[in-house]
Amino acid sequence: MSRYARINRKTSETDIELTLELDGKGEAAVDTGIGFFDHMLKSFAKHGLFDLNVKIKGDLHVDCHHTVEDAGIVLGAAIKKALGDKNSIKRYGSFLLPMDEALVMCAIDLSGRPYLVYDAKFGAERVGYFDTEMAKEFFYAVSYSAGMNLHIKEMYGENSHHIIEAMFKAFARALDEAVTVDPRVGGLPSTKGAL
């Protein structure tokens, strides 16, 4: 059974069309209007082996905030929808990802309880047309929309591009582990019987 979601969301600030296949091949078509953000979402798809299509028309004449935050909201909603009843998933995932001088840790619990713990500092205010402070806003939006407990920590790093890219790739690898179906689980991975 395909774990797939299509989400369309239109506001006065953004118009977003997104499709997500959790059991994909890492193929992506992304057009957000922000080159660096396109690169990050394509990296997320590639390293998580998710098939992702994203098209966003946002108010970039204002800044990148609404486009990036709303993309997080829609991606989180797609993850939640594609997971369905969560039967037999591993639920937890974590990854420690190096990228040149940077090292980033990501840990996920698909508990249904949203929470973000984020610890990172950047030496630059922007990478291309992407404000570095928007990395936190994106992951916050994903965690709350998906209902996931998400921890992202920069262990160390200097180059802002490398740090953010390591975040997206670590998130992809941790999420891939968490959504993996394990037949040994046999139902919901919770002693409460609910996620």
Descriptive tags:
4-stranded mixed beta sheet; globular; alpha+beta; 195 residues
At a glance:
This protein is α+β, with helices and mostly antiparallel strands and 195 residues long. It contains 4 helices and 10 strands; from the N terminus they run βββαβαβββββαβα. It has helices at 35-48, 65-83, 134-146, 160-179; strands spanning 4-10, 14-21, 28-31, 51-58, 92-99, 102-109, 115-119, 126-127, 130-131, 149-156.
Q: What gap, in angstroms, lies between the N and C termini?
A: 20 Å
Provide the helix percentage.
25-40%
Q: State the shape.
A: globular
| Poorly predicted runs of 5 or more residues | none
Calculate the mean pLDDT score and round it. 96
Strand content: 25-35%
Helix segment tally = 4
Largest sheet descriptor: 4 strands, mixed
Radius of gyration: 16 Å
Strand order of the largest sheet: 1-2-4-3
Structural class: alpha+beta
Describe what this molecule looks like in 3D.
With 195 residues, the protein is α+β, with helices and mostly antiparallel strands. The protein contains four helices and ten strands. It has helices at 35-48, 65-83, 134-146, 160-179; strands spanning 4-10, 14-21, 28-31, 51-58, 92-99, 102-109, 115-119, 126-127, 130-131, 149-156. The strands form three sheets. It has a four-stranded mixed beta sheet with strand order 1-2-4-3, with helices on one face. Strands 5-6-10-7 form a four-stranded mixed beta sheet. Strands 8-9 form a two-stranded antiparallel ribbon. Helix 1 packs parallel to helix 4. The mean pLDDT is 96.
